Amino acid sequence: MSVEPGWYVDPADPETRRYWDGEGWLGAPIPVDATPPDGPPPPEPPPVPVTPAALDAPATAPGWPPHTGSGPAPGHGTQPGHDTPSPHGPQPGPGPGWSPQGAPPGWSPQAGPPGWTPQGVPPGWPGRPPEPRPHGLRLAGYGRRFAARLIDFTVVFALNALVNGWFVWRLIDEMLPYWREVFRRAFAGDTSTDNLPQIGEQAGLLQVVILLIATALWLAYEVPAMASHGQTFGKRVMRIRAVPLAADQPLGFARAFGRWTTMGLPTLLWYCAGLGLVLQLVDALSPLFDHPLRQALHDKRVQTVVVEVPASTASAPSNDDQPSGDTP
Question: Labelling 230: which of 61, 102, 130, 180 has CA 20 to 30 A away?
Answer without folding.
Answer: 130
